[in-house]
Protein backbone atom coordinates (compact mmCIF):
# COMPACT_ATOMS: atom_id res chain seq x y z
CA UNK A 1 0.00 0.00 0.00
CA UNK A 2 2.89 2.34 0.83
CA UNK A 3 4.47 1.60 -2.55
CA UNK A 4 1.20 2.46 -4.29
CA UNK A 5 1.00 5.79 -2.47
CA UNK A 6 4.61 6.49 -3.39
CA UNK A 7 3.91 5.80 -7.09
CA UNK A 8 0.83 8.02 -7.00
CA UNK A 9 2.80 10.89 -5.43
CA UNK A 10 5.59 10.41 -7.97
CA UNK A 11 3.06 10.48 -10.82
CA UNK A 12 1.61 13.80 -9.65
CA UNK A 13 5.07 15.32 -9.21
CA UNK A 14 6.06 14.32 -12.76
CA UNK A 15 2.75 15.60 -14.13
CA UNK A 16 3.25 18.92 -12.34
CA UNK A 17 6.75 19.30 -13.75
CA UNK A 18 5.61 18.56 -17.30
CA UNK A 19 2.69 20.97 -17.00
CA UNK A 20 5.00 23.65 -15.64
CA UNK A 21 7.30 23.22 -18.62
CA UNK A 22 4.39 23.79 -20.99
CA UNK A 23 3.03 26.85 -19.24
CA UNK A 24 6.01 28.47 -17.54
CA UNK A 25 8.61 27.60 -20.15
CA UNK A 26 6.82 29.76 -22.69
CA UNK A 27 6.60 32.74 -20.36
CA UNK A 28 10.33 33.28 -20.17
CA UNK A 29 11.18 36.97 -19.59
CA UNK A 30 13.98 37.20 -22.17
CA UNK A 31 13.33 39.73 -24.90
CA UNK A 32 14.49 39.54 -28.51
CA UNK A 33 14.44 41.75 -31.58
CA UNK A 34 13.22 40.62 -34.98
CA UNK A 35 13.55 43.23 -37.72
CA UNK A 36 12.95 42.02 -41.27
CA UNK A 37 11.93 43.84 -44.45
CA UNK A 38 9.82 42.43 -47.26
CA UNK A 39 9.99 38.80 -46.19
CA UNK A 40 7.50 35.96 -46.01
CA UNK A 41 6.22 34.58 -42.72
CA UNK A 42 8.54 31.57 -42.72
CA UNK A 43 11.53 33.93 -42.56
CA UNK A 44 10.12 35.38 -39.34
CA UNK A 45 9.80 31.90 -37.86
CA UNK A 46 13.40 31.14 -38.86
CA UNK A 47 14.66 34.36 -37.26
CA UNK A 48 12.88 33.52 -34.01
CA UNK A 49 14.34 29.99 -34.06
CA UNK A 50 17.83 31.46 -34.44
CA UNK A 51 17.31 33.71 -31.40
CA UNK A 52 15.53 31.25 -29.11
CA UNK A 53 15.39 27.56 -28.24
CA UNK A 54 12.00 27.17 -29.91
CA UNK A 55 11.20 25.33 -33.14
CA UNK A 56 8.22 26.07 -35.38
CA UNK A 57 6.12 23.34 -36.99
CA UNK A 58 3.71 24.37 -39.76
CA UNK A 59 2.23 23.45 -43.12
CA UNK A 60 3.71 25.25 -46.14
CA UNK A 61 0.21 26.32 -47.22
CA UNK A 62 0.12 28.70 -44.25
CA UNK A 63 3.17 30.73 -45.29
CA UNK A 64 2.33 30.61 -49.01
CA UNK A 65 -0.90 32.53 -48.47
CA UNK A 66 0.84 35.43 -46.72
CA UNK A 67 2.35 38.37 -48.58
CA UNK A 68 5.89 39.63 -48.09
CA UNK A 69 5.94 42.50 -45.64
CA UNK A 70 8.01 44.28 -43.00
CA UNK A 71 8.22 42.93 -39.45
CA UNK A 72 9.60 45.08 -36.67
CA UNK A 73 9.66 43.65 -33.15
CA UNK A 74 12.24 45.44 -30.99
CA UNK A 75 13.13 44.24 -27.50
CA UNK A 76 9.95 42.17 -27.29
CA UNK A 77 9.14 38.91 -25.52
CA UNK A 78 8.34 35.87 -27.62
CA UNK A 79 4.83 35.74 -26.17
CA UNK A 80 4.16 39.31 -27.34
CA UNK A 81 5.58 38.59 -30.80
CA UNK A 82 3.36 35.54 -31.25
CA UNK A 83 0.33 37.48 -30.06
CA UNK A 84 0.96 40.20 -32.66
CA UNK A 85 1.60 37.66 -35.43
CA UNK A 86 -1.59 35.83 -34.51
CA UNK A 87 -3.63 39.01 -34.89
CA UNK A 88 -1.88 40.30 -38.02
CA UNK A 89 -1.67 37.02 -39.94
CA UNK A 90 -4.86 35.35 -38.65
CA UNK A 91 -3.00 32.30 -37.40
CA UNK A 92 -2.97 30.40 -34.11
CA UNK A 93 -0.05 29.07 -32.07
CA UNK A 94 0.08 26.08 -29.74
CA UNK A 95 3.18 25.86 -27.56
CA UNK A 96 4.28 22.53 -26.08
CA UNK A 97 7.69 22.49 -24.41
CA UNK A 98 10.00 24.01 -27.05
CA UNK A 99 7.82 23.33 -30.07
CA UNK A 100 5.45 25.94 -31.52
CA UNK A 101 2.78 24.52 -33.80
CA UNK A 102 1.24 26.98 -36.26
CA UNK A 103 -2.27 26.60 -37.66
CA UNK A 104 -4.82 28.70 -39.47
CA UNK A 105 -7.47 30.26 -37.30
CA UNK A 106 -10.76 28.49 -37.72
CA UNK A 107 -13.86 30.60 -38.11
CA UNK A 108 -16.28 30.31 -35.27
CA UNK A 109 -19.81 29.88 -36.53
CA UNK A 110 -23.20 30.30 -34.98
CA UNK A 111 -26.66 29.41 -36.28
CA UNK A 112 -29.25 32.13 -36.69
CA UNK A 113 -32.90 31.73 -37.59
CA UNK A 114 -35.49 34.16 -38.84
CA UNK A 115 -38.54 34.90 -40.91
CA UNK A 116 -39.05 37.14 -43.95
CA UNK A 117 -42.43 38.86 -44.21
CA UNK A 118 -44.11 41.75 -46.01
CA UNK A 119 -45.69 44.82 -44.38
CA UNK A 120 -48.91 42.84 -43.79
CA UNK A 121 -47.00 40.12 -41.91
CA UNK A 122 -47.48 37.65 -44.77
CA UNK A 123 -44.54 35.18 -44.98
CA UNK A 124 -42.49 35.37 -48.17
CA UNK A 125 -41.61 31.85 -49.30
CA UNK A 126 -38.55 31.47 -51.52
CA UNK A 127 -36.83 34.72 -50.46
CA UNK A 128 -33.05 34.52 -50.70
CA UNK A 129 -30.94 35.25 -47.62
CA UNK A 130 -27.28 35.63 -48.61
CA UNK A 131 -24.10 36.45 -46.71
CA UNK A 132 -22.77 39.63 -48.31
CA UNK A 133 -19.42 39.15 -50.01
CA UNK A 134 -19.73 35.37 -49.96
CA UNK A 135 -21.40 32.77 -52.15
CA UNK A 136 -23.25 31.11 -49.30
CA UNK A 137 -26.81 31.59 -48.19
CA UNK A 138 -30.24 30.01 -48.08
CA UNK A 139 -33.87 30.53 -49.07
CA UNK A 140 -36.96 30.80 -46.90
CA UNK A 141 -39.34 27.87 -46.64
CA UNK A 142 -43.11 27.85 -47.22
CA UNK A 143 -43.63 29.72 -43.94
CA UNK A 144 -41.01 32.35 -44.79
CA UNK A 145 -38.57 30.94 -42.25
CA UNK A 146 -34.85 30.34 -42.66
CA UNK A 147 -31.82 28.99 -40.80
CA UNK A 148 -28.23 29.95 -41.62
CA UNK A 149 -24.74 29.39 -40.19
CA UNK A 150 -22.77 32.65 -40.00
CA UNK A 151 -19.54 33.97 -38.50
CA UNK A 152 -19.83 34.86 -34.81
CA UNK A 153 -18.45 38.26 -35.71
CA UNK A 154 -20.64 40.90 -37.34
CA UNK A 155 -22.04 39.69 -40.66
CA UNK A 156 -24.14 41.50 -43.27
CA UNK A 157 -27.05 39.62 -44.82
CA UNK A 158 -28.68 40.57 -48.13
CA UNK A 159 -32.35 39.60 -48.44
CA UNK A 160 -34.05 39.53 -51.86
CA UNK A 161 -37.51 38.65 -53.13
CA UNK A 162 -39.09 39.28 -56.53
CA UNK A 163 -41.19 42.43 -56.54
CA UNK A 164 -39.69 43.71 -53.30
CA UNK A 165 -36.87 46.05 -52.37
CA UNK A 166 -33.72 44.17 -51.34
CA UNK A 167 -32.63 44.73 -47.77
CA UNK A 168 -29.35 44.44 -45.88
CA UNK A 169 -29.29 43.29 -42.28
CA UNK A 170 -26.30 43.58 -39.95
CA UNK A 171 -26.21 40.73 -37.47
CA UNK A 172 -25.63 41.19 -33.75
CA UNK A 173 -26.00 38.97 -30.71
CA UNK A 174 -29.55 37.96 -31.59
CA UNK A 175 -30.35 34.42 -32.69
CA UNK A 176 -33.67 35.25 -34.40
CA UNK A 177 -34.41 37.97 -36.99
CA UNK A 178 -37.76 39.16 -38.29
CA UNK A 179 -37.11 40.84 -41.63
CA UNK A 180 -39.80 42.96 -43.30
CA UNK A 181 -39.46 43.73 -47.00
CA UNK A 182 -41.15 46.65 -48.78
CA UNK A 183 -42.81 46.27 -52.16
CA UNK A 184 -40.93 47.67 -55.13
CA UNK A 185 -43.70 49.48 -57.01
CA UNK A 186 -41.57 50.01 -60.12
CA UNK A 187 -40.68 46.33 -60.32
CA UNK A 188 -44.31 45.29 -59.94
CA UNK A 189 -45.34 47.57 -62.81
CA UNK A 190 -42.73 46.00 -65.08
CA UNK A 191 -44.02 42.44 -64.89
CA UNK A 192 -47.14 40.88 -66.35
CA UNK A 193 -48.61 37.63 -65.07
CA UNK A 194 -49.71 35.37 -67.91
CA UNK A 195 -50.97 31.80 -68.19
CA UNK A 196 -47.42 30.76 -69.06
CA UNK A 197 -45.76 32.45 -66.13
CA UNK A 198 -44.19 35.84 -65.45
CA UNK A 199 -42.63 38.02 -68.12
CA UNK A 200 -41.47 41.58 -68.27
CA UNK A 201 -43.83 44.14 -69.71
CA UNK A 202 -42.88 45.35 -73.19
CA UNK A 203 -42.41 49.10 -73.24
CA UNK A 204 -43.47 51.19 -76.27
Q: Which regions are unreliable across 5 or more consecutive residues at pLDDT < 50?
A: 2-25
The CATH topology annotation of the largest domain reads as Immunoglobulin-like
Strand content: 35-45%
Examine the secondary-structure arrangement and name the CATH architecture of the largest domain. Sandwich
Radius of gyration, in angstroms, nearest whole number: 28 Å
- The spatial strand order of the largest sheet comes to 8-7-10-11
Helical proportion, percent range: 25-40%
Counting helices, strands and paired strands, the structural category is: alpha+beta
Number of helices: 5
- Series of secondary-structure elements, N-terminal to C-terminal: HEHEHEHEEEEEEEEEHEE
Written account of the structure:
The chain folds into two domains: 78 residues, 3-Layer(bab) Sandwich (Phage tail protein beta-alpha-beta fold), CATH 3.55.50.30; 92 residues, Carboxypeptidase-like, regulatory domain (Immunoglobulin-like, Sandwich), CATH 2.60.40.1120. It is an alpha+beta fold and 204 residues long. It is elongated. The chain is built from five helices and 14 strands. The longest helix has 22 residues.
Structure at a glance:
The chain is α+β, with helices and mostly antiparallel strands and 204 residues long. It has 5 helices and 14 strands.
Provide the fold topology:
Blueprint: H1 2-23, E1 31-39, H2 41-51, E2 55-57, H3 60-64, E3 69-77, H4 78-89, E4 91-96, E5 99-104, E6 109-117, E7 128-131, E8 137-139, E9 145-151, E10 156-160, E11 167-170, E12 176-180, H5 185-189, E13 191-194, E14 197-200
Parallel strand pairs: 2-5, 6-12
Antiparallel strand pairs: 1-3, 4-5, 6-9, 7-8, 7-10, 10-11, 13-14
